[in-house]
Amino acid sequence: MFIKDSLFTVLLFRTPGLLIGIAISITKQCNKFTEDLIMSVVHVLNYRKELRGWNLENTRDSASGVKALASQLVSELKLADGTKPVGPQLMETNFDQSAIEDWVYRVPQISVFLSVVIRQGLHVLHSLPDQTKDILNLVPGCKGIKGRGLVSLFDVPSIIYINSHLPAELQHKWQLLFSSRLHGESFSQLCGHIVNKGPCIVILKDLDGYIFGGFASHSWEVKPQFQGDNRCFLFSVFPSLAVYTYTGYNDHYMYLNHGQQTMPNGLTKGKKSILDIDPEAQALLEMTGKSRQSEGLREPIEEDEDDDN
């Protein structure tokens, strides 16, 4: 802990560029610092062959992922009263030194990324066992993609960020269960590959290029009841990176059913269908940051029922 505190002291109080930036635009300085830090982490992990089955060829371009993750981390900056400026206001807000200190200590990815760069990049303090636990599961092992010619919808920064929100016991390995490129665009095939396989991550890309998904905390079962618990969450990867956790609005975490006459069919999280009639219209609003609230089960829209389009 002493080492971590000393490192942050150097960054916060002995770096002239950052101190000058406080007088100019601290948010922009923090954003640039964070982008450089994340890019350094990706470079170090790739150079040291620590990507554990992932590589820069079988994932999305990391450049956009770096910017998305930096924006997400910088959005955690708080004013003295605890409020978080958002949107354009964030970049124009002048945070004082105490706010920056709070941000560095409070956002766990910052300290972990600094550890990676210092220890893995420079091989400083590399052998201290108590300094390795924070990055043990930074990148999950990748199983099932190698040799299949697939390019993941995730980039390396988003893999790191989403993995950090999973339960600790699930952070060590990701195993590919289903890909529409490999198994076809079949809902039956999807069900056959994910049912009774344990917790999983679902990720989708729509026709407009939006990438989003969710984490299912339990094995999927085909049944007319909701499943899962409050560890389930939704996330967006592109154009913005964010995780949307349980709000307490309801307990309808997961739902999987098909071939039913009277019950809803499809794969659902938070009572919003993501593989039912219209995935973009049903899920995009929640999963790309427009709303963080789950709503009630989809109700038929009478005026659309007679629409021939």
From TrEMBL:
Keywords: Cytoplasm, Lysosome, Membrane. One of its GO terms (biological process) is response to oxidative stress. It comes from the Eukaryota. GO terms for cellular component: lysosome; membrane; nucleus. The keyword Repeat does not apply. It is found in: Cytoplasm; Lysosome; Membrane. InterPro entries: TLDc_dom (IPR006571). Residues 152-309 form the TLDc domain. Residues 288-309 are annotated as: Disordered. The keyword Cytoplasm applies. It holds the Pfam family TLD. This is MTOR-associated protein MEAK7.
